[in-house]
Structure formats: structure tokens, C-alpha cells
Amino acid sequence: MGDPTIADVFGAQVSLAATDQGLFLVVGRSASPAALVRSARGRVAYQLPNDRALLAAMPLGSFVALRGHREIAHIGPVTIDGERFNQFLTRVAQSRAINP
């Protein structure tokens, strides 16, 4: 056998399983990009208070297709800790209940 891998040394479990789905921040240039996201096989995961920005769940290919679209001001991958994201959603819901 050879030298132990870094995963072995630190007792880590390494998984290279990948999914085609990702979470992306999408900002429209002048309007909500929701229709573009849906047309690219994505779904709106969360519409941000700014009507032009949203979080979208979509395949990587959809991200690549939308990346150069003239109606998209910004699109980029987002990594979210599930627990913190749920806390964020709770705070947004509470804020909307107080300020409808």
C-alpha cells in the first residue's frame, strides 16, 4: 500500500457524489428573472424582497445558459448552511408579519 490519504489521516469520509441541481442567486437587469429561470428548467426557491433578485434551484446547464443572457445582471452559485437558511427564512417571515 502507499501513503495514507488526507481523508485517512483526519478520519474524514469523502464523497464525490454530485448532483446536477444547484442553488443560484439571479438578479434581473430591469425586471424579475423568474420567467427566465422557469424557461431554463429552474424553479424559484425564494423571491428576495428586491423584486429583481431571487434564489433559484436549477441544473448546472441552466446556469450556464442564463449566464450570458442580456436580461440577467448577475447569476452565481450560492452555498447555504441549511440551519442558517431556515433561521433566515424565519426572520423574513417574522419581518413580513410585522411589516406587511
Question: What would you say about this model in short?
Answer:
The protein is α+β, with helices and mostly antiparallel strands.
Continuous helix count: 4
Distance between the termini: 64 Å
CATH topology: Alpha-Beta Plaits
Derived structural class:
alpha+beta
| Overall pLDDT | 83
Question: In terms of per-residue confidence, which ranges show pLDDT below 50 for 5 or more consecutive residues?
Answer: none
Number of DSSP-assigned strands = 4
For the biggest sheet, the summary is:
4 strands, antiparallel
User: Quick one: CATH superfamily?
Assistant: Peptidase S8 propeptide/proteinase inhibitor I9
**How are the strands of the biggest sheet laid out side by side?**
2-3-1-4
H-E order: HEHEEHEH
